[in-house]
Design goal:
Layout (H helix, E strand, L loop, with lengths): L4 E4 L8 E4 L5 E2 L4 E8 L5 E7 L8 E2 L2 E3 L6 H13 L3 E12 L4 E10 L10 E8 L11 H13 L15 H4 L8
Parallel strand pairs: 4-9
Antiparallel strand pairs: 1-2, 2-3, 4-7, 5-6, 5-10, 8-9
Amino acid sequence: MPTNFSLQIPAGEDRMRQVCDTCGFINYVNPKIVAGVVVDDGQGRVLLCRRAIEPRYGFWTVPAGFMEERETTAQGAAREVWEEARAKVTINALLGIYEVPRISQVHFMYRGTLSDDGFGAGPESLEVAWFAYEDIPWDQLAFPTGVWALKDWAKVQNQAAFVPFSNPPGSEHLTHPRTPASD
């Protein structure tokens, strides 16, 4: 916590917040937003990146990462594809919104296609490759939200319009904070 701040319940609030003891400024700590894209080639293959950074170094993932200030979720998703796969992408649709309150994150995953044929490993990736759905290395995927996005993509890959997905039933043990009773 910053110097000169203490935990207080500010007037009109219902929870503890970091409040400056000098001026009363409230330091709201809010969830992080992750944006990514399931990039497909129109022939049933998806583009995956093998991570060159922690967490989950060496595991595969869809291109995704934290949004930057002053960008939309779609812009952030396209930027992440460039950073991780050195590919230009056209966003087609919002595929799903996945919530991970355990780590205070919300993931916006889009469906997209390459705008041109070029791609390669960016600085955050060891390698980038196309995978047919049946060849995806499921046991080597980095994050549950990537697994959910890939499975949801498979359900709608040939549909122009669909309702975006959310966390699958039964995933609470992966996303919600542990309680003493669940340990």
